[in-house]
From TrEMBL, chain A:
Keywords: Oxidoreductase. InterPro entries: CO_DH_flav_C, CO_DH_flav_C_dom_sf, Diverse_Substr_Oxidored, FAD-bd_PCMH, FAD-bd_PCMH-like_sf, FAD-bd_PCMH_sub1, FAD-bd_PCMH_sub2, Mopterin_DH_FAD-bd. It comes from Umezawaea endophytica. GO terms for molecular function: FAD binding; oxidoreductase activity. Residues 1-222 form the FAD-binding PCMH-type domain. This is Xanthine dehydrogenase family protein subunit M. The keyword Oxidoreductase applies.
UniProtKB/TrEMBL annotation, chain B:
Residues 26-136 form the Aldehyde oxidase/xanthine dehydrogenase a/b hammerhead domain. GO terms for molecular function: iron ion binding; oxidoreductase activity. It comes from Umezawaea endophytica. This is Xanthine dehydrogenase family protein molybdopterin-binding subunit. Keywords: Molybdenum, Oxidoreductase. Signal peptide: none annotated.
Amino acid sequence: MKEFGYNRASGVRDAVALLAHEPEARFLGGGTNLVDLMKAGVETPDLLVDVRGLPLGRVELRSDGALTIGATVTNSDLAAHPEVRRRFPALAEAVLAGASGQLRNVATVGGNLLQRTRCGYFTDTSFPCNKRVPGSGCPAITGEHHNHAILGASDHCVATNPSDMGVALAAFDAVISFETVDGPGELALSEFYPPVGDTPHVETSLPAGALITAVTLPAAPVAARSRYRKVRERASYAFATGSIAAAVDVEGGVVRDVRIAFGAVASRPWRAHEAERALIGAPATAQAFGAAADAELAAAKPLAHNGYKVPLLRNLVVSVLTELTEEAAR
Amino acid sequence: MTDLTDSATRAVGTSTVRVEGREKVTGAARYAADVPFEGLAHGWLVLATVARGRVSSIGVDPVLAMPGVIGVIHHGNAPRLNPKAGMFGIPDGTLQLLQDDRVPHFGRPVALVVAETLEQARAGADALVVTYEEEPHDTAFSADHPGAYTPVSAPVSAKGDVDAEIAASPVVVDQRYSTPEEHHGSMEPHASMARWENGRLEVVDSNQGSFMVSTILSALFHLDEGVVRVRAEHVGGGFGSKGVGAQLILAVMAATTFDRPVRVTLTRHQVFTVTGMRPATRQRIRLGADSTGRLRAIDHESVNQTSTIYEYVERNGEVTHALYAADAIRISTSVVPVDLPTPTWMRAPGCAPGSFAVESAMDELAEATGIDPVELRLRNEPQVGPLSGLPFSSRNLVGCLQEGARRFGWADRDPRPGVRRDGRWLVGTGMAAGIYGAGSVPSTAAVTAEADGGYTVAIGAADIGTGARTALTLVAAEALNVPPSAVRMKIADSDLGSAWFAGGSRGTSSWSWAVTAAAEDLRDKLVGIDRIPPEGITGRGDTAAQIAALAQQERHAHGAQFAEVAVDPLTGEVRVRRMLGIFAAGRIVNPLTTRSQLVGGMVMGLSMALHEEGLRDAAFGGQVNGDFAGYHVAAHADVPDIEADWVDDYDPSHPSGIKGVGEVAIVGTAAAVANAVWHATGVRHRTLPISLSRVLTSQA
Ligand SMILES: Cc1cc2nc3c(=O)[nH]c(=O)nc-3n(C[C@H](O)[C@H](O)[C@H](O)COP(=O)(O)OP(=O)(O)OC[C@H]3O[C@@H](n4cnc5c(N)ncnc54)[C@H](O)[C@@H]3O)c2cc1C
Ligand code: SF4
């Protein structure tokens, strides 16, 4: 682990300015991902700018029903917030499905969005990896890729984004607010994670040195009945092998509105637009849910050892949408 | 002084908290990496990053110029080792570190960077550029690998004509089973400090047997007897991985080269890479039975991966050796050397993977014959060793099966698979029997009556977290007929004399025998003495002659495990709901720590069933999941309801009736879980771990 500087930012502008002067600087949230990667030699910053003291630690309900979540809100506080639980239960469930109690107590919203992949080649510097060392190759494609991407990957990288929280945010059209030395800006979550292409090391569309300040969820009445279901190898303390955030609004047996996003299948939380399109106006039946899942998963390109994710995601779509529909009918 | 009379104390058999428990929970207990030494330097391992080849260059100079760096040890300057050194006098190539430029596998240490601080050593190691001349490698272990052979140390053992019996059997099960590489992952990473002090090599280590380590180390470094002193006061788990560690050998090299105390500590990732693992195994089981379920034949073929530098044999057939009666039995074992790190013992070596195969096959036989799995086992209970014909020292597998079945509620079980639902879950139950060898190995001990009225017991035992120190306190208290509080234990020091190590489930039995013998000697010496001199009076025990005089017998601990699982057929998730293990493992010295050993073994078995798998990249030979984020073991939420208990099984061939409990607890667990998954889903899983992808794909 190489030596690095540590600085505690006193304000948002100060934080951004500190980072602007050091190309190899990183913001430090809870440190639960960044510090681990520093110990493994994967991240080698010269300077850490601690953002936890910034006034970004609140969840606010806006008059239009949107929810604005500060970037330093801890995962625990986010999951426990009454408005989050009432308006976006799938988000609270997603956050609680991640990591452990201790980690959630310190991990932040901003850090969670930027946590890095759990690909075993990426986290072990004795292997090549295009994401860690651009151009060095991707051993996962022919090697161990049991929990790698089936959607939206490229010949250069097949890693997944490991976040649970991000899946719920993707389902509900989150918008990321950030600050740079040039002032504030915004990015829809759908644009926040760029396509992998031949630049797997470029993981966000944020301008260089940008500080995430908040995440906003626009009002979404459909989200009030929503669910996050995470499938994992053990009962707790494991990343997803496949997950789904979903919400559905059914009237007279017909789907009026629906939101579906997948986790652990792509380099970003995967919004299932194809499935949603197939379902709007369709009957709320298991058969239609299955057909919608198939429409989404038609684009899947499984590798030799992760093909199980295709039936897994299909089953999740059918079972979670059926569950939500049945609950609504009760 | 405390009166020595003949009436028994109640120490043995009474639940007693660990004598060092307070030290441990308050952080006062010091493990090998915690003990301060003046002038201590730190070493950091540099590991090979190719699967096979030669080291062509090591960029030492720039590293020597780095702050704090004292030196770099590599094959060009390392002290020469004795190639004949190894456990039980068997040369062990894994110990021959830095002796030449060969790289036999990924992760082999190629250098040690020594510096003033740990951080400087690590920085130096990170900066050390090593180049290699790579050679083609073979890391692909398989049962039909052309390099497979039968080791001289594991010849076929057989009785009767297995093929003829199988041909004549109305019911035959013939199946293949696979188990993956599994890693020990003790909580305390391996660490060793070595220094030369007054002509002696002093070692503070994390190991499973200081005397054994000192003997091998002496041989390895061409040192005279008595020169080496090894201590390992507290050890945070070993599971078979803590013998003579690479970190120890390199620490001794560095201490010798630089004439400084040097400590080498492994990171978790290095623990995965350099301390060995249970090898992957492939097994074929053929059972031939008549329609009443009586076994006519058991054919157990097993093959495991080993390395090119040491022939490690996973003796899976051990479990078949004495578990069931059959007219004909054949056990054959082979190994396949590949370009991967050398496997080693891991909790219940042989019997853990072996029982997965045999006890799964027995469940398949129960299915084929329509006989209840518990009943099937009862019908095949042997009266004498099935292969050897020798009597059992004691055996109460029947008691385990019956008591387990009663407490688990087995009698009400509907044998049909795949028919019980609880919401989205399919529910099933399964069971398996287990066996692991017992016995005692010659050891020495001393017991001193002190002038202050207390007693000091000195024995080269190891407490690797099992509670051995406490168990021996109870045994000594009983033998001396004094309260446990009057007994002080000195253990884990090679200067205390020859003693068996914490392995093979033979620690407590071997050590307690020596302690009892020393106590008897002391009692003899104390006859007629009414004042203890300041230096005390010491009794000594050496069990070599008594153990050599023991009649030949089959000595084993036994167990029966029961599991209830839930399987979500839509996601493949498997969750264990409850587990019960009933064991017959000799007289139980300390119920409190015994239960924790047994429950721990069962949890490890549950992890083996569902989670554990060392994943290797075939192109590089490195492990892709060499940390606890990637290598899963059960979390608390995976173990909702687990119970362990025992039935009477006093072993009359041991002076205190003791066997061992550490290993039998993991034998059969994986099969019990796999059998329950079959009962839940109707699908057999013959490959471990039963991961959700395997379940999901098999349900389709
Ligand atoms: C053992 C373990 C298990 C886990 N299991 C799960 C799981 O099951 N599901 C899951 O979703 N997650 C899981 N996590 C990941 C955990 O959720 C993330 O580590 C955490 O959310 C990251 O938050 P942090 O605040 O600690 O980020 P940090 O580690 O502090 O930072 C992560 C990255 O974000 C950047 N960053 C932080 N804040 C900002 C900001 N405001 N603006 C711009 N950049 C910023 C940092 O520079 C860094 O690059 C697990 C983590 C561990 C260690
Ligand atoms: S999948 Fe991506 S992160 Fe993993 S090895 Fe390939 S390039 Fe690296």
